[in-house]
Amino acid sequence: MPLSEHEQKMLDEMERQLFADDPRLARAFAPKAPPRRNGRRILIGLGAVVLGLALLVLAVALPAIWLGVIAFIGMVAGAVYAITGPSGTSSGTGSSGGGPGGGQGPTAPGTGDGGSFMRKMEERWEKRAGDDPRL
């Protein structure tokens, strides 16, 4: 069931307010560009896989189990190196952590970026629930 025009406007306004009150949350939910594949990285990883495969064939020809194990580990490491992106963070994000929360704990009400928003939301919730001790 699609939202009505009024509901869509209210939702957009709530989203703008939330992102204005908590910029860290806005950065966490911002669309991220997919990591670019580096041709040099793929070539090095592919070379390691081919070299590991050649060593594995050599290990089968010579009864050397230890060489086969090393070759297999080299093949897996080369494949992982070719598939994964660089471990550094992209420039411009400035987030400290890889998770949606930015690697930091939740913000306590009244402190930090989103404290005023959370405090307002808690006050509204208490008023609706009738649990406001100030009333």
From TrEMBL:
Keyword annotations of the record: Membrane, Transmembrane, Transmembrane helix
Gly residues compositional bias, start-end: 94-115
Keyword presence, GTP-binding: no
Region (Disordered) location: 87-135
Feature: compositional bias, Basic and acidic residues: 119-135
Classification via Pfam families: DUF3040
InterPro entries: DUF3040 (IPR021401)
Transmembrane intervals: 42-59, 65-83
Keyword field contains Transmembrane: yes
Designated name of the protein: DUF3040 domain-containing protein
Annotated source species: Brachybacterium conglomeratum
Taxonomic lineage from the root: Bacteria, Bacillati, Actinomycetota, Actinomycetes, Micrococcales
